[in-house]
Amino acid sequence: MTGRHSAEEPAVPAVPLSPELTAAAELTESAELTEAAKPGKTLLGPAEIRDLAEMLGVNPTKKLGQNFVIDANTVRRIVKVATVSPGDTVLEVGPGLGSLTLGLLEIGASVVAVEIDDRLAEQLPLTVELMQPGAPLTVIRNDALKITELPGDPSRLVANLPYNVSVPVLLYLLENFASIRAGVVMVQAEVGERLAAPPGNKVYGSPSVKAAWYGAFRTAGKVSRQVFWPVPGVDSILIAFERRAEPLESEELRRATFALVDAAFQQRRKMLRQSLSVVLGDSATASEVMTRAGIDPTTRGEQLTVDHFLAIARAQLATA
To answer: Where, by residue number, does S-adenosyl-L-methionine bind (predicted)?
Structure first.
């Protein structure tokens, strides 16, 4: 997953390496990774993952959300669930040591990988060139929450997202890159279940409504803790999504709707006429706006769909 923050930089070209990274590149090609270099082997295994981490001085930590996938079958399962096809351009966030990157390239996709850790970003092209020479990879060294453009207009997002920022990263990418039409992300199980939850579900909340703004989200299978190194203390899940054919509404209405959603779930046990008074002015005004939108003011946020919140936002802006 991700590492430390770095300033925005262009896609990684072939540049001279520092002495430390030159040594790392040499180690990649040394006997310690001979298994990875065997003919026909295109994915990393547990030994190669640990060797790469050691040579780069990467000590996976919970703080940085670093848990690397070490199981090739899991990698291929993710690629299959994401229905990635040869020729697709795929965006991957937090490629880490390259397990999933290699799986995407193996199927014949082009990969645009956004990596925040300088060491990992510089090593990734070297690893790919060793395992799958000539594979179409572009690495962007940056924070995924700061990128403003992507080469190749990726049509799919397939990523093992850093668990500590998974929802903000996902929503940011959907908001800013309309070319992303579908994808699969691996996230903490509890977070993923919220993203895919329907109204009335006990875990339905702000992420559920905001995700629904962009399209349909569903759970696509749990992932064993044992396929990660180090083994995480939480369960993981795959979340698949398909973007709506057309945007639900304008950017102005999206912002207004999301403000209502945030207010509703910050005080989720209160009636909406109370929780939305923070945004709409006071309880009486909130009741009036909701009534015009055809929503019962005594309803709670967990009962409303994204279309209900949108209706309230329309009524709000109509009287602004």
So the answer is: 67, 69, 94, 115, 143, 160
